[in-house]
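Running this now, will post back.
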Amino acid sequence: MRSDIAQKAIDAAFSKLGVDGFYQPETGDPVPCKVLFSSDDDEPLDFGGKSRPVGRESVLKLRAAEVTPSKERVITIAETGAIYTIKSLPILSGCARLVWKFKAVAS
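Update: finished.
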């Protein structure tokens, strides 16, 4: 798929399904972005070698055209004020590599 067509498809998906949010980079002001929630599952959290499903971990997606996320940075959802901390290394997903995908935990 051509990258311009892929970008239009990504933009349409985020416009229809995404929510407004702000990504907080390490330095500077928060950056407005669209956030797409991919899943929200119980994840086992490790407590000294014993893992139990005690927390919620979500898979979030951000457009690469808007931000370049980093682990341990936060995303705030504009409408609700919910704060998510990025817990996995963000990876560019899809064949065109236009979307960042990562696991995040609500704070």
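The longest strand covers residues 31-47. More later if anyone needs it.
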